[in-house]
Specification:
The complex is a heterodimer of chains A (167) and B (646). In chain A, the strands form four sheets. In chain A, strands 1-9 form a two-stranded antiparallel sheet. Chain A contains five helices and nine strands, in the order βαβββαββαββαβα. In chain A, strand 7 and strand 8 form a beta hairpin. With 646 residues, chain B is an alpha+beta fold. Chain B folds into three domains: 202 residues, Aldehyde ferredoxin oxidoreductase, N-terminal domain (Aldehyde Ferredoxin Oxidoreductase,  A, domain 1); 184 residues, Aldehyde Ferredoxin Oxidoreductase Protein, subunit A, domain 2 (Orthogonal Bundle), CATH 1.10.569; 194 residues, Aldehyde Ferredoxin Oxidoreductase Protein, subunit A, domain 3 (Orthogonal Bundle). Chain B has a six-stranded mixed beta sheet, sandwiched between helices. The radius of gyration of chain B is 23 Å and the shape is globular. The two termini of chain B are 20 Å apart. Classes of the chains: A alpha+beta (167), B alpha+beta (646). At the A-B interface, helix 1, strand 2 and helix 4 of A face helix 4, strand 13, helix 7 and strand 14 of B. Strand 2 of chain A pairs antiparallel with strand 13 of chain B, so a sheet runs across the interface.
Chain lengths: 167, 646
Amino acid sequence: MQKNNKILKIDYEKCTGCRLCELVCAVKHDRVSNPIRSRIRVIKWESEGIYVPVSCQQCEDAPCVLGCPAKALSRNDDLGRVEIDYNKCIGCRTCVSVCPFGAMHFVDADRKVIKCDLCDGDPQCVRFCDVEAVSFVETKDLGLEKGREAARRLQAAGKKAGTLLEA
Amino acid sequence: MALNRKIAYIDLTTGDIQVKPIPIEIRKRFIGGRGLDAYLLYNHTEKGVDPLSPDNVLLISAGLLAATCASATTRTHVMAKSPLTGLLGSTNMGGFFAPELAWAGFHHLVIRGKAEKPCYLFIHDGEIEIRDAKNIWGRSTTETQWAIREELNDPEVKSLVIGPAGETLVRFANVMTGIKDSGGRTGMGCIMGSKNLKAVAARGTTDISIAYPEEALEFNKRFIDQIASSKVNQTQGTLGTPFIWGATNSWGGVRARNFQYNQCEYADDIEPERIDEIATETMGPHHMAGCFGCQVHCRARYKLPSGPYAGKYDEGPEYTALGAFGAMPDCRNAETVLTCNYLVNQYGMDVLETGAMISWAMELFELGILTSEQTDGLELRFGNDEALIEMISRICSRKGWLGDTLADGGIPASEKIGKNSFDYLVQVKGMNNLHSDERGTPALALNVATASRGSDHLRSRPAIDLYHLPEQVLRKIYSNPVPYDGPLSSDHTVYEGKPWQVFWQENCYMAVDCLGICKYHTVFLGPTHPNFEDWAKVIHYNTGLEFTPKDIWDAAVRGNTIERLFNLREGLTRNDLQKGDMLNHRYFDEPCLRGAPDVVGRKIDKDKFIQMIDELYEHKGLDKDGVPKPETLKKQGLEGEPSHRL
């Protein structure tokens, strides 16, 4: 099986705050609608109009993997993700406390931790987000779009400066 | 699951709270949301109840599909007897409140009585608390919401609140959630104020199970693709509803200077592109925001670029704000429109009613019907931006003779002002008309005149009438799920076939108001948008309930009939200019002075208009007086109402 180098890329500036990603994530994984079961969460500052989706970054050197006393968390290179082995998990929530992104969650009703599993390669949050605030891209291409945007701004600024000099 | 969400009866006088399930049989008949609210209102109020008395009942609800895996199941519905019209009060809003209420375990709240001192409700996972509102009374709509979160120490709490205008009992005070999601029409904020109820806060973490999750997900995806692929929604998702303003104004379908013109000229500064520019400059290129689970994302985030509130964050402005604070008072300055929009959002007043009342007063002032003494020296003329802004604040705080007078709504104000002021008040059933001008579009005029909550464009407007769709396309839309082989015309200037379109749309909008889905996901905007057949599937996949498209139609018809029964009980008579299905004389007497060739010179032909109403009544099963015939009630199973079953 070919190694998966695709990763969830979150471009929060594009997020419209609709939380459809939370809805479909919970329905896909748990067959219910309930945002506290979602692996992706849109954190909001409504008074300023700021919306930031937060999900597992599938870290290369993941604090949750390092911190897990039961060795229940491990990296799966084939699927490009960090995953939980529920047979080993003791429910100590260490991963929840050490995750620097707050992307590990503990679901009270089920008494278990949850995290993004990239829907085994077809992330539903990406599929449903038409503004592409969440996308699924090759790690090597992560910086491409931002780079092109920055280059365009540089070019526009240069052109503007040129116009000013001529004037 | 959605079907185990409850109904709560809350008495603010006694503090008594009772929780009951919603029987499936009631679901089959009224679905939920607005339809069930109408049933509850008719059953829980007595004839002639004073809207501001503790005996009036306030209903707050989430639709049947709220928070399920269907798209844009975001709408909250609020109903009571209106303090503005004395008839049906009903308003519907987007945002995130309804899903939160559903996750908290409830679909309907039936609130009666009056709290001894200001209070708010906190609803969380099956529990309901009545809490002291001393820390939030007097605060603006947004401050109230953030203060509740702080007090409850939970940033995820969603609240439906009133602002200062609800507290001072402005008859058109609204209810709000978020920055600008408003239940604007018919003064439901005034009802909350009269009950000393400042807010309803909700926080829910209970599961709503989905009957067929795979199917629901796939169907939702299809829905979204269907909507997102339409040009009209793409434009809506880029420019927001101002795009409709731009289009209708350039064509000649916008009231200007109250009702003197049908187009606002030289309005570049408030064109949708200019509003988009302001949002881009202050919030960046990706400034559109969406309600829960909706991919239309039709509201802009922006900061006020200048003026007394420069730098303040706000959302919108909507189509309505551009008309209410732009064309109608003849203001053509973005800074002023955005300032007005910000103020009404913070005060919690209906954008439309506020702008229309002030524009009417401006016309009266220019005609000399209102005097400088009555305006306390304010030069209330068209185009006087400062006077416009000042008047908004005076209405909210009921300051001065005119502020207090206008705050009571159009008809009481016209009685106080006297002379022939009523003739200039463009209203139906006591509520002002939208800023759109329907003199060139009989179908839309019929919709405004017959809407159940008073003059309104969101109850039965066949907006696609303006698209000039081929007749076979119209026939496909309008002969489902019940057959129709009468006339239909692609020409928006004719009167033939329009009553059926209005009747059909009335049921279409009632259906989505029962389900809790936004109207932008219906044929309101696009002929290819989801329809009764799609909703039958969506209901089934999400709740497991079996509804045929015809069942949904029948439930919608039933809901509309109940609303009619309520209005008749409270005094609606067909031709009454104050409480009937009749337009202001200006529609029949004053021709359009501006606009495209298919608008200019047009006015509504009164005889043909009355004939249209006759036809609409026939479609609705009403007699010539607009009263449901006994066989209609029997057919719809409403002959025993009010039955007090729930």
